[in-house]
Amino acid sequence: MCDLSFNSAFPLLKSVFMELDEAIRGRRSVRSYIDRPVSLGLVREVLEAATWAPSAKNGQQWRFTVLTGAAKRRLTDLFRSELQALSEKIGAERMGSSFASCRVMKQASVLIMVWNINERGWATEEHSVAAAIQNMLLKAHSLGLGTLWIGDIYYALDSLTRHLGKPWKLVAAIALGWPAKTPKPPPRLTVDQVTEFLR
């Protein structure tokens, strides 16, 4: 049985807090990956972190579909085909970063499609799923993995949902893999720039 006083435990606690701070500040949106598989064990660790996120009324509204190999190829091929068809209809200049996102999805070893079961139709259920995604990104970073939170799936939401055969709301795709490089941190607004303190 371990009986630590606060004073003796404080250095350990400080070390834990520093690790969390470093993970938050060190995480990057990774858009380039090396050709190296990610083990199922590591994927499960990332998903386990997601399941510990806070959720509306403890509804745990998140669900995940993990794609690798041929399954990932089929989905990304469909996505690119849908993007191409839409581009021809509305013009390439209106496609934003969607083709670049598709390239990242193809290159990453693992693609995790994130769903919201949205059982109660609350807006807060979206918040729950977003919290789970943030846990995934931080856990992946702590394991040395890179991730990219992809919202461009909205360009082909209906087709991707039908392809995967789920009745839920498709929220995001997370590219997961071993980063080819670590991007530099982008400029950040300060706390004072984004916060109003009222008394």
* Broad structural category: alpha+beta
Give, in order, the helices and strands.
Answer: HHEHHEHEHEH
Assembly classification: single chain
Placed side by side, the strands forming the largest sheet appear as: 1-2-4-3
Share of residues in strands: 5-15%
The CATH superfamily title: NADH Oxidase
Overall domain count: 1
- Total strands: the figure is 4
What is the 3D shape?
Answer: globular
Q: Output the CATH class name.
A: Alpha Beta
Distinct helical segment count:
7
User: CATH architecture, please?
Assistant: 3-Layer(aba) Sandwich
**At the third CATH level, what is the topology name?**
NADH Oxidase
Q: How far is it from the N-terminal to the C-terminal residue, by CA?
A: 45 Å
Mean pLDDT: 92
Kindly describe this structure.
The chain is α+β, with helices and mostly antiparallel strands and 199 residues long. It has a single domain, classed as 3-Layer(aba) Sandwich (NADH Oxidase). Helices cover 48% and strands 14% of the residues. It contains 7 helices and 4 strands, in the order ααβααβαβαβα. It has a 4-stranded antiparallel β-sheet with strand order 1-2-4-3, sandwiched between helices. The radius of gyration is 19 Å and the shape is globular.
